[in-house]
């Protein structure tokens, strides 16, 4: 055996799983097709929101609370500042299912929060132009993460603890055998006991059994200059998510004293056929959509983006990740399909991935992420 555990893809989930395994003293080997901390897949673009009052479901809250602790642990171990709490604004009409889910999370887990009616919200956060029916819920355990620095920090820490890292080394294929899994990468064959698939947008190449339940999507981020920079610093302009007139978007304070980043949630139109076909050029139509949104809702920003870029991510059919042992092969563990909201969860997902690889089980409640849910859907 070249190592006990092999990891395919050292981006968000792979780096954190490697850190957890190395901490546990397990021999682990990881492969990354690009450089560590690159911005060519799901983790690029400078910032990611951390939030706890969760519109995607209250079952995520215990995971998020542990993720928070692990982010702080990684900060201590690496000496790098990764998570900055700013509060988080959740903006929308109280009638939407997302706002109802946020309230459910708050109530079930007694989360620290504030609810501002429209008038209070406009006084406190005049940067946002609100519709007549909109309110703001403030999630107190919310802020932004530094994605690429987080990945580099986790990989570096894992290396210090004995992990073996192959960057710029694409895995071509894996083969499960009676006594472990062989990994064909960079012209060599490596043998490990178990393999974790953390290949992000490329995961589908290693999860053919579930390919029909996943699609790769392109996401565009745009950066805007403020008319008055001090109004958009992290004290005055917390991270936010907003549903306005059926349209979802999110934003960040200026993290470098300069530009404010805005991102839009995906639509059916964002699907791309393969990760290798990602078009990084931004169309005039996409630029116009951002300009229209800023003109409508964020009058303190100049409406023409000064920087734009595109990234990608795998979405599953139900927008929840696939975390668990492969249904047909207990030597292979899936950690994929994070559907646009996985970054904040990464260290706890790394812990879960490590536990699944070592023991085949975890105490975390992950039934709703199991690969089998899609297998059952196929049978029905
Ligand atoms: C624009 C955008 C904004 C987002 N905003 C947020 C947010 O605010 N908050 C939040 O929590 N989440 C957010 N997300 C989601 C979050 O970033 C993702 O869920 C998370 O990064 C997915 O991690 P991953 O490990 O699956 O993929 P990745 O981080 O992309 O890692 C996969 C890695 O595998 C490597 N790889 C693939 N195939 C191979 C191979 N054959 N051999 C070797 N290496 C390989 C890739 O190069 C890559 O490095 C956002 C996503 C995007 C795209």
Write the SSE topology.
Blueprint: E1 3-8, H1 12-23, E2 28-31, E3 48-50, H2 61-78, E4 83-85, E5 88-92, H3 97-109, E6 113-116, H4 118-124, E7 135-139, E8 143-145, H5 147-160, E9 164-166, E10 171-177, E11 180-185, E12 188-197, E13 214-224, E14 239-244, E15 247-251, E16 260-264, E17 271-272, H6 284-297, E18 307-316, E19 322-326, E20 329-336, H7 346-359, H8 372-379
Parallel strand pairs: 1-2, 1-12, 2-9, 5-14, 12-20
Antiparallel strand pairs: 3-8, 4-8, 5-7, 6-7, 10-11, 11-12, 13-16, 13-17, 13-18, 14-15, 15-16, 19-20
Task: Name some characteristics of this structure.
binds flavin-adenine dinucleotide, FAD/NAD(P)-binding domain, D-Amino Acid Oxidase, Chain A, domain 2, alpha+beta, 380 residues, 2 domains, 26% helix, 8-stranded mixed β-sheet, single chain
CATH architecture of the largest domain: 3-Layer(bba) Sandwich
CATH class of the largest domain: Alpha Beta
Query: What is the CATH topology descriptor of the largest domain?
Result: FAD/NAD(P)-binding domain
Number of strands: 20
Number of helices: 8
